[in-house]
Amino acid sequence: MDPVTLASTAVGLLVPVLKSFGDKIVDAGGDAAVTKIRALYERIKRRLTGDPYDEQLLDGVAADPRSESRARNLRDRIAELMEADAEFRAEVEALVQDAERAGATAVSAAGSGITAGGNVSQVAGGDAVGRDKISGDPQRNP
Predict the structure, then answer these.
(1) At what angle do helices 32-48 and 86-101 cross, to 10 degrees?
(2) Rounded to whole angstroms, how far apart are CA atoms 50 and 6?
(3) What is the Cβ-side half-sphere exposure of residue 129, based on CA atoms within 13 angstroms?
(4) pLDDT tens, 114-132?
(5) HSE-up of 137 (CA within 13 Å, CB side)?
(6) pLDDT category of residue 56 using cuts at 50, 70 and 90
(7) Among residues 11, 117, 7, which one has the least CA distance to residue 71?
């Protein structure tokens, strides 16, 4: 996986969990996916530790995981680090794959749209619009 896609996936896995738990990610319910995401978070945190700017990026997302700009800045920095450090990239890729195998789903949004990985289903009704409009009403789809 290329560094930008991998960084997007990693941050996409982290953000929903940070929204629920903050940087105190715990797995009280025995959820294997949360355990794997915790390992991913810890590895990224270890790589960013020691550089005040990098630490601030992760802390910023943990403080406000709903901020798209904070998530984007973290994603971009992680991608830069992975381009320069093949070992870090391989470790993050393995942790992302472990989390996805455990059932974690990555969702990320950017200016070009939303990307979702894993098993994704639409729970609420309504329309999904992208290149093609897909209605929540099956009878309205051509």
Answers:
(1) 160
(2) 23
(3) 2
(4) 444 444 433 334 445 444 5
(5) 2
(6) very high
(7) 11
